Amino acid sequence: MPRKALLTIIALIIISPIFGVILADIVGYHEPLDVAAEKLGLKDISEEINWTPLFDYSVPGLNPVVGYIISGFIGVSIILAIGYTLMKLIGEEH
Q: Is 55 exposed, middle or buried (0-12, 13-18, 19+ CB in 10 A)?
């Protein structure tokens, strides 16, 4: 991956909590599906069936901003690993 692209991705991950945590709290943003479910009177069972360690893009015990950044790095790493693996598999066949 080109260095400039990698640095851009890192910078975007680091500033992402500004939009996903800080400003969302300031303006009172809620996910549209959560709002629709609330209007329909549906019960929120997400905490009961939580199967992921990074629920709501957070890391238990850490500040939400830090957890958001860690979640971003983990997500981007998984996508890059999948892309790299697919690139190697396709490259070996041709």
A: middle
- The domains of the chain are located at 3-93
The tens place of each residue's pLDDT in the chain, 94 residues long, gives 789 999 999 999 999 999 988 998 899 888 898 899 999 999 888 878 877 778 888 888 899 899 999 999 999 999 999 999 999 999 865 5
- Residue 72, Cβ density class (10 Å: 0-12 exposed, 13-18 middle, ≥19 buried): buried
The answer to whether 72 touches 10, Cβ cutoff 8 Å, is no
